[in-house]
Amino acid sequence: MKFFITFIIVPLVFIVIVSYSTGSKDFIIGPNDDERKKLIKQKSIVQSWMTILLFLLTNFFYDLFNLYDERISDSSFVFPELFYLIILVVSYFIFLLINNRKMSA
Fold this sequence. Notes:
mainly alpha, Putative membrane protein, membrane, transmembrane helix, transmembrane
C-alpha cells in the first residue's frame, strides 16, 4: 500500500496540480486554456513563489539579527512547512484574482 501511494498516487496528484495551475497542455491531463489564461496563471505562480521567498528571507533576517519577540518564543508550530504551503496556495489564488482583473478584456 505504501508503494502504491508513494509511486502512483502522489505523482498523479502532482501532475494534475501542476497542469491545472499552469494551464499547460504538456501533461496528460490539462485544461484547454488560451494564451491569456496561461500567462495569468504563470504570473500568479511566479508572484506566489516570490511571496514565499519574501517570507523565508524575513525569517532568515529575524534569525540573523535575533529580532524575535520574547513573548512568543515559547510557542512553536508543529508543522512549520504547512504554514508556508498555506501561504503559497493562498497567495496563488489571491494573485490569480488580481491578475484576472488586471488582464480582463
